[in-house]
Design goal:
10% of the residues lie in helices and 48% in strands. The chain contains eight helices and 50 strands. Strands 3, 4, 7, 8, 14, 15, 18, 19, 20 and 21 form a ten-stranded mixed beta sheet that branches. The two termini are 92 Å apart. The protein binds 2-acetamido-2-deoxy-beta-D-glucopyranose (7 copies). It holds the Pfam family Ig_ZP2.
Amino acid sequence: HGRKRGQEVTYTFTKTCSPALPWSPREVTCEENYMEVRMLTVALFIQSLSLAYRSASVWTVRFQKAGQQATTMNLQEARTQGYVFNVAHGRIVFRTPYGQPDSDSIMVNDVPVEVIQATLFSRQSWVVLMVDLVIACSMYQGSYEDGGYMTWETPETPFPGLNAKQISVGLSGELMEQPVAESRGYIIEKRNNTVRIVIPYSAEGRHRTSVMIGDLFEFFIFHLYMEQISVDKDKVETRLRHHRALTTGLLRHPVITDNRTVVEDRIFTIYLGDIPEDVNLVGLELNGQLFTAPFTNTSTCEVGEEVHPDTTHGFTLKVSFDDPCVIQQFSTEDAVVQYQLDVNYTLTIVPDDEPFYHVASFVAVWTDLTPPAFDAFCSETGIVFRLDRRSLDHKWEVVIGSDPLTSDLANQYGYIMSNDGNDLLLEAPLFTQGYEYKNITLEGFNGTFEIYVRDRETSNIQSSTVKTCPFTAEELIVCSTDGMMTVVADLSLAVPSGGVPASTNLLDKNCGPREADDTRALFSFPVNTCGSVVKLSHGHVTYENRILFDPELLPVTTNTSTDIDRVTVQCAYPIADLHRLFSMFRFEADTTVVGQISHSAKLKAAIEPTTALHTPLPATPQTTGLIAVRAARHPPVRYVKVLSSLHNTAKKSQYFNRQIKGFD
Ligand SMILES: *[C@@H]1O[C@H](CO)[C@@H](O)[C@H](O)[C@H]1NC(C)=O
Ligand SMILES: *[C@@H]1O[C@H](CO)[C@@H](O)[C@H](O)[C@H]1NC(C)=O
Ligand SMILES: *[C@@H]1O[C@H](CO)[C@@H](O)[C@H](O)[C@H]1NC(C)=O
Ligand SMILES: *[C@@H]1O[C@H](CO)[C@@H](O)[C@H](O)[C@H]1NC(C)=O
Ligand SMILES: *[C@@H]1O[C@H](CO)[C@@H](O)[C@H](O)[C@H]1NC(C)=O
Ligand SMILES: *[C@@H]1O[C@H](CO)[C@@H](O)[C@H](O)[C@H]1NC(C)=O
Ligand SMILES: *[C@@H]1O[C@H](CO)[C@@H](O)[C@H](O)[C@H]1NC(C)=O
């Protein structure tokens, strides 16, 4: 029978087993709730006793307790008192529950033993039949020792006059001979005529159960099976079998958490260990956010399980400081960030699955407030920056030019900004504000984009990331704040057949191209030179020039009246920025300074004005770092990209308007 939640439940089953070994002449069994002796005896006795029950003949049993008068009763009376006498397989069997009035509890070398001595006898005419039936069982309860051992003791021989021959021991019905048991960590010692068996708590076959009573406890049950074989002086064997359930008391079994955090890794590493095998982790609350098993890993939070040879298991929880569930507290005063993680583990004991909780709180202080670093790489259409740590938002801000990077700024300037969990991605398409262009040649040019990280509190710039990427463009115009106009123009329709782009010039015939190939030429000149025409309108100063082909350079036979493309180039500067431009070039008077540069013609311009960034002058000392660079910041440069498609006049003006608009 068993117990389930306080109710007694009875199960019935039948099983027949044959003993593996032949029985010894005398078999004594100390079962958990009865003791028994089974003896081979003479045939006549068996026959007589078999008849006795049926004929109610004169069999008598006499129980003898040490130092007391014997009690005598017939077999029927004995039966009603719980004794069983029987005959089976040529043996006489006597069985009794423990604690009968006719049994004795004695101490044998400090071991409690229950002994019962019964004598069966019958007088039949001239024969007296008599047999002594003695049973002695160790009643030792077992003791659990702190080292993790269960100890049990029994007298070396059940009755006097026997010699111990062999001991086997095991748990849950398994028997091992002494050397095997010892190899498994059992200790079997004989001392003072007592056998002492020491069972390691982890021995195979033991049962362990967790219990939650305010705290986590466990207890062990060892279903001990022990067999002692002894012989008397005539070498007649007695086999004594013990079946004992030895139970430890409730042993405290605390679940432990171990803080294995290494602050430098920016990860909370918390080990929950010493969890018994019948306890499961079913839930986790991280700062109030609930996760239930089975747990799935993310890039910032993972749970791994490990099982230990001692049958406990443990869980390692790793939560990045940057995980959204981690509480961050920034202290301006101490310039530190404090990360906090409160964990509430939900554990259950199988099979009942009653939950209990284990709570722990962790704090890590991050003092290494180095500004976050960007990765940067070139794409076909621009430059991409990636920030792999978005943890220090409160201390740092990202700045482009002089403006903090926000999604509004990104929208305004056409940057593409995305946030994938931990990474901030910023793509600056070519020709957007913030670019600086260098080393422009017909083959290509370099675009440089720089972003800064500055301290939110002090606005001091702490780090910068500069990326230069090579780009190519069929046509291009760059108007820089230091007053240079650089143009790469497709002149294939501007040069009559027989001529070459190298033979073109600006309005001032002395200004020729710096580079030219079969179809294109590159001009680079100060905006106010080379015969530029300057125009003031719409709040802008526009410098305009033209790329012309000198017909005198052609052979006379050539038909020069063919409608050829006239290429106009222009740069427009907002008047608001002009004073700085002027002061830089020390232009003398307002009237002289007004000018115009634009890029247009039959080779129509799709003018995409792009806005600002600082262009340090070559003379600016840049070596002293970012502050110096900021101090040297210049009025925005206007870059105009020119596309090589042809447009009609209406469209031209439209593009022009757009150009103007873009400068606002
Ligand atoms: C053996 O048992 C006797 C009697 O109980 C006791 O006095 C003695 O100390 C015991 N010896 C050992 C080694 O346990
Ligand atoms: C989560 O990661 C840990 C290693 O950190 C691993 O042991 C575990 O199996 C992973 N869990 C899942 C569900 O992938
Ligand atoms: C842990 O979680 C359980 C279940 O949500 C809750 O009842 C308990 O109060 C929590 N313990 C703490 C200390 O937050
Ligand atoms: C956990 O470990 C980290 C790193 O060693 C330490 O800073 C922190 O104080 C520890 N204790 C707690 C309760 O978080
Ligand atoms: C590229 O430009 C820088 C200045 O912007 C100049 O110092 C350098 O010589 C140029 N390199 C080439 C290859 O033109
Ligand atoms: C362009 O930049 C690359 C590095 O990104 C550099 O190797 C190359 O020399 C630069 N080209 C010019 C013309 O400066
Ligand atoms: C030059 O070309 C124009 C238009 O294509 C044509 O009308 C004129 O006759 C040509 N002149 C000569 C000399 O070929």
